[in-house]
Write a sequence for this structure.
DNA sequence: ATGGTAGCAAAGCTA
């Protein structure tokens, strides 16, 4: 059994202490990071290696940046989306580890529906669909997880109005782009274990804005997702979120999401 | 509620 976790840490350097505490408790075998917010030379390499992890990363100054941390050595690292080679932002990294192909993805936020940044978000999603479909053809266990910056269903947000008004994270266009990935054959690992039609699974979110006491009022969204290939979904044993990390001193605005696979 | 907070990096951009 291995645990694969994803976490948008919103700067790894400022988050090292809560990050170490969470690793002690969750003990993941593979960690997919987003928003490490540094170039490779500033990555806290020794501290992470001391925790027992191999590091693969695609860094960027100030913004974005993704990484794969793994207890086992990785093979076949892919830096950036092959279907979006002109992308200048560090938002995708992929590798083969523990018999699974894993990818850490940081989908652009998009800022506002109709803006230039929104067009970039949709272009990125289109490229992710193209590459995801290529990978699915391999018919192997595959995990593409990270911050998708999309709440796929109305139950994945605290405010139904935002979905009706096509606000960012909630617009029909964004949700249709994610649905296209589901329709290609990807399965939502978290929802498979926590179906939203059960009352106990409502209000389960992975991101809360820093502003206006969003976390204290649980005004969040579920925007960090595990997309599993059919072969990976067959291995799924459990899934969860660690929202208590959001209560720590100087927290990330995202909580980790994880799955356990029978490997 | 077009402000509220946080991180980077050193003023404004991004989220």
């Amino acid at each position: 059994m291995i645990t694969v976790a994803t976490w948008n840490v919103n700067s790894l350097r400022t988050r090292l202490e809560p990050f170490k505490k969470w690793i002690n408790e969750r003990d993941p075998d593979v960690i997919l990071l987003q928003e490490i917010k540094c170039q490779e030379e500033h990555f806290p390499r020794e501290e992470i290696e001391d925790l027992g992890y191999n590091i693969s990363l695609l860094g960027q100054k100030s913004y974005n940046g993704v990484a794969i941390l793994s207890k086992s050595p990785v093979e076949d690292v892919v830096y950036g989306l092959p279907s979006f080679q002109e992308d200048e932002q560090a938002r995708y990294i992929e590798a083969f580890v523990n018999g699974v192909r894993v990818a850490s993805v940081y989908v652009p936020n998009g800022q506002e529906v109709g803006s230039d940044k929104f067009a970039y978000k949709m272009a990125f999603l289109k490229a992710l669909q193209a590459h995801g479909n290529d990978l699915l053809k391999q018919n192997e266990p595959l995990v593409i997880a990270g911050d998708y910056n999309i709440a796929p269903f109305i139950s994945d947000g605290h405010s139904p109005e935002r979905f009706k008004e096509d606000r960012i994270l909630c617009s029909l266009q964004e949700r249709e782009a994610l649905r296209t990935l589901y329709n290609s054959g990807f399965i939502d690992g978290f929802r498979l274990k926590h179906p939203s039609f059960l009352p106990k699974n409502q209000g389960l979110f992975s991101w809360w804005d820093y502003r206006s006491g969003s976390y204290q009022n649980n005004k969040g969204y579920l925007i960090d997702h595990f997309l599993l290939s059919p072969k990976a979904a067959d291995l799924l044993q459990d899934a969860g979120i660690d929202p208590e990390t959001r209560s720590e001193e100087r927290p990330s605005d995202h909580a980790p999401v994880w799955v356990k696979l029978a490997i």
Q: What stands out?
A: Residues 2-261 of chain A form a domain with the Deoxyribonuclease I; Chain A fold (CATH 3.60.10.10). The first strand of chain A starts at residue 2 and ends at 8.
